[in-house]
Design brief:
The complex is a heterodimer of chains A (165) and B (330).
Chain A (H helix, E strand, L loop, with lengths): L1 H16 L21 H12 L3 H14 L4 H12 L6 H14 L4 H13 L3 H12 L3 H13 L14
Helix pairs in contact in A: 2-3, 3-4, 4-5, 4-6, 5-6, 6-7, 6-8, 7-8
Chain B lengths: L2 H11 L12 H4 L47 H4 L1 H5 L12 H9 L2 H10 L9 H12 L8 H6 L9 H10 L32 E2 L19 H4 L7 E2 L22 H9 L7 E3 L5 E3 L13 H12 L4 H10 L3
Antiparallel strand pairs in B: 1-2, 3-4
Helix pairs in contact in B: 1-6, 1-7, 9-12
Classes of the chains: A mainly alpha (165), B mainly alpha (330).
Chain lengths: 165, 330
Amino acid sequence: MKLIAIVISVSIFSMLALSSHAFAAGSSSKPVSDTRPGVIDYNDGVKLMQQAKYDRAERKFAAALKKNPEMAEAHNNLGYSLRKQGTKNYDKALSHYNQAIELKPDLAEAFMYRGVLFMLMGQEAKALEDHRQLTLLDRDLADALQAAIASGEEPDGLDGLAKSW
Amino acid sequence: MTSEKVELGRLLFYDPRLSGDSTISCATCHQPEHAFTDGRGQAEGIGGSIHPRSAMSLTNVAYNTTLGWDDPNLTRLEDQILVPLYNTDPPEMGVTDHENEVLARFRKDPRMVHHFRTAFPEDPSPIIIRNIIYALASFERTLISGNSTYDRWAYGGKADGLDEVQRAGARLFFSKRLGCFRCHGGFNFSGPIQYEGSESPEARFHNTGLYDEDGQGAYPEPNTGLHRHTGESFDMGKFRAPTLRNIALTAPYMHDGSIPDLDAVLDHYGVGGRHRLHRPQEGNITVESITDPLMTGFELSEDDTRQLIAFLHALTDETFVQESKQSAVP
């Protein structure tokens, strides 16, 4: 019991210590003049994803990653685009969330939607572990994930997606 | 905030000498066994005076964006503490016009003199009202509750921490159909909170359809909620959503204690407010005018009700209560 109390205390005080940033900055695409490899495909993918055209978004994110394999945000959104196309894609989606987190361990959005995916896969303990990590990165997203895990319902909106790069 | 100030605050919190006639302490209305409420619908102050509202829980009070039931401008504990000390309508702790007597009691007590000096070492005359307030606020900020059954499930790595019934209740609580979490949200199961590094969230107040005195949604005076501070008719009956942590210990419920238990609370929300206000508009369309639009009502089976109540009980932090009781000053 005491150990648990310490864990909870640490968790709460970590919340105090860490800033709660707003959702991923900016929902608009980067200007076309951004010439970084893969950015045009990425931004096209974001637009398609926001229109719920997940199969086409998937192809755009995959193209972005071909040009820039280190783009954690593209892995994150590819994971989402795959997952929204059905349960057959869950394992593949998970793999992309894992890569996103490996490339960028502070990418809150990846913890958010990997947690949702774990919830949908019935792996509650792993979903809760992502929630715990998320409390240290983004309190608003953590609260949304908490509600999703507890209810078994997907969060409203697309706040868990990486929008800018 | 220092440990010495917290310790002094703890001693003062439980000390009736802090009231005008030495009969009432902070703990009279904020009792640890009731998660720092008093089990009464309306708090009782000095001389038996009855407060129009119930004593609020101090669980995690440090995180509240606003304090009290309905005051949008009461944002610092140091300011809130002045209310029970100095309120005269009705008198709560009755310090008004008795400040010198109160301070003299502590100045005569060598133990308290020592604690004041330790807490405020740079102050040549530390036994003053300002320091009492600082110490009380420091103590209240340590009233942190985060070790309930629910916490062990959500944060403690115990995925089986909730039993089947509690887990089903959590599913209902966080469901979009019931939407309880939309007002009692976040880790504190409350309205907006703030903490170091957070943005300053906008305070929120809700009319939950408790009263309709005049067919226009009026609440009985003086408990008109946010309206009594703003004078705006659309603020009638709006109150802050308090934390649900330890809620099973804080009956009766609502700002005036007018709902006796959790079953009845669920009934109230189930019907979308016992005096849900519908105001007919042109075209025979009925719309809500004052009652919060989130108060849409819902149907609960007997099992649902049992599960939700089990979940609310899972928000009780026995460690917090036990440790608070043990640290109480007799």
